Amino acid sequence: MHLTRRLCAPLSHFTRMKSLGLFAALTVLAAHSAALRASDVPAVALSSGGSMPLVGLGTWQVTGDRELEQALDAALEAGYRHIDTATIYNNEHLIGKVLKRWLSEGKVKREDLFISTKLPVYAMRAADVPDLLNQSLSRLQLDYVDMYLIHMPFGVNRESYNGVSIVAIGPNDTDPSTDHRAIWDAMVAEKEAGRARALGVSNFNESQIERLVKHSAVPPANLQVELHLFHQQKPLVEFCKKNSITVTAFSPIGSPGSKWLIKLSGKELPDLLNVPEVLEIAKKHRKTAAQVLLRHILQKGIAVIPKSSTPARVRQNIDILDFSLDDEDVASLDSLDKGIDGKLFIMKNIGGSVNHPEYPWTKLQNEATS
Ligand SMILES: NC(=O)c1ccc[n+]([C@@H]2O[C@H](COP(=O)([O-])OP(=O)(O)OC[C@H]3O[C@@H](n4cnc5c(N)ncnc54)[C@H](OP(=O)(O)O)[C@@H]3O)[C@@H](O)[C@H]2O)c1
Ligand SMILES: *[C@@H]1O[C@H](CO)[C@@H](O)[C@H](O)[C@H]1NC(C)=O
Ligand SMILES: *[C@@H]1O[C@H](CO)[C@@H](O)[C@H](O)[C@H]1NC(C)=O
Ligand SMILES: *[C@@H]1O[C@H](CO)[C@@H](O)[C@H](O)[C@H]1NC(C)=O
C-alpha cells in the first residue's frame, strides 16, 4: 500500500477500507475542513500507472452552455479534478472551454486533472479509434485524456448516427462485425502515442473483459459500469478486484434525471433518494440521502461520478469525506441490493443492440427469474 495523499482522516476510515480488502492500492480518505482541497480526495492506483480520483463529476445530459459552465466551475472550486464525459454527450467542446480558462488562468494544473471520455458506439472499428480520439482531444482542447473508455460493447454503423441522439439510431443499423481485440489494440496504440494515459471499458460483462485481459499486455485499467444501491454488482466488482481493474460507478444515485429513458424500456425509475433505510442512515450522520448513497460506494474503493448541474448539489456530492458509515449501516445498505433486477439501463433502444453478438446482458432475463 503506498500513500500518495496526506493521511489526515481518522485512522478508522483507513483501516475499515483496508479491512474490506478491496483495492489494496487505495489511498487515503481525508480531510474535513470547510474548504476541501483537491489533494484531499482519495484516489486509486491504475494498473497502467497513475491514479484516478475516486470522486468525479458526471456530465451526461448536460448540454446547455451556461448550465455546464456553472456546474464545472462549481465542481472545480469544490475540489473535483475528475470529469467524466463521452463523445455522445455532445458537451466535450463546452468542457474544453471551461478547462482552457482554468488552465490558462493558472487556477489548475493539467497534471492535477483527470479527464475521461469514450469511444462512441458508432465508431466500434479499429480504424475509427485514432480519428475519434483526435476529435475528442480537439474539442476538449487537450493533448491527452487521462482515461479513454470503449463506451459500449456493441456497435452500429457510423453513418447511422445523426449527431444528436443515439436513441434515434434505427434497429437495422447494427454492425455485427465488432471485434473487441482489434479495437483494443488500436486503443493501446493511442496510449503508446501518449494521447490516452489509461484505457478502460464501459458496459462490458465479465467474459468480454476477460477476453481482453487474456489478449493484451495492456489490460483494461478501469471498468465504468452501472452501480448503485439496487444494483451493487458484487460479482463483477470481485472479478475486477482479482484482475487489478478499478471500478467506476455510473448512475451512483440512481439517475433520477433519466425517468424519460427508463420509460422507453417499459419500466419505472425507483427513487433511491427516498428509500427509508437510506433516509434513516442519513439522519443519523446528519448527511443527505445522496451523500449516503455515494459514501456507501466510495467506502468500497469504487469511484463515483455523480452528475449534477445544480451548484449546491455539486458541492454536496463531494462533501462525503468527513464521515464514515459503520458496519451496521453498510450491512443494511448491502442487503438492499436487488442484483440483476435492480439494473436500470439495458440499452435496448440503441440501434438494435439487443440482437448484436456483443450485447452484454443476454442472460439478464434468465438470471432475473432465478
Ligand atoms: N458509461 C455509460 O454508459 C454511462 C451511463 C450513464 C451515466 N454515465 C456517467 O455517469 C454519470 C452519472 O450518472 P447519471 O447522470 O446517470 O446519474 P446520477 O449521477 O446517479 O444522477 C444524476 C441526477 O441526480 C440529480 N442529483 C445529483 N445530485 C443530487 C443530490 N445531491 N440530491 C438530489 N438529486 C441530485 C441530478 O439533478 P440536477 O442535475 O438537476 O442537480 C440528476 O438528475 C453520468 O453523468 C455520466 O457521466 C455513464
Ligand atoms: C491524430 O493526431 C495525431 C497528432 O496530432 C496525428 O499524428 C494523427 O495523424 C491524427 N490521426 C488522425 C486519424 O487524424
Ligand atoms: C428493418 O429490416 C426489416 C427486414 O428487412 C424490415 O422489415 C424493417 O422494416 C426494417 N426496419 C426499419 C426501421 O427500417
Ligand atoms: C456476455 O457477453 C457475451 C457477448 O460477448 C454474451 O454472449 C454473454 O451471454 C454475456 N454474458 C452474460 C452473463 O449475459
Automatic annotation (TrEMBL):
Gene3D superfamilies: NADP-dependent oxidoreductase domain. Residues 1-38 form the signal peptide. PROSITE patterns: ALDOKETO_REDUCTASE_1, ALDOKETO_REDUCTASE_2. Transmembrane segments: none annotated. It holds the Pfam family Aldo_ket_red. Residues 55-337 form the NADP-dependent oxidoreductase domain. Keywords: NADP, Oxidoreductase, Signal. InterPro entries: AKR, Aldo/ket_reductase_CS, NAD(P)_OxRdtase_dom_sf, NADP_OxRdtase_dom. It comes from the Eukaryota. One of its GO terms (molecular function) is oxidoreductase activity. Belongs to the aldo/keto reductase family. This is Aldo-keto reductase family 1 member B7-like isoform X1.
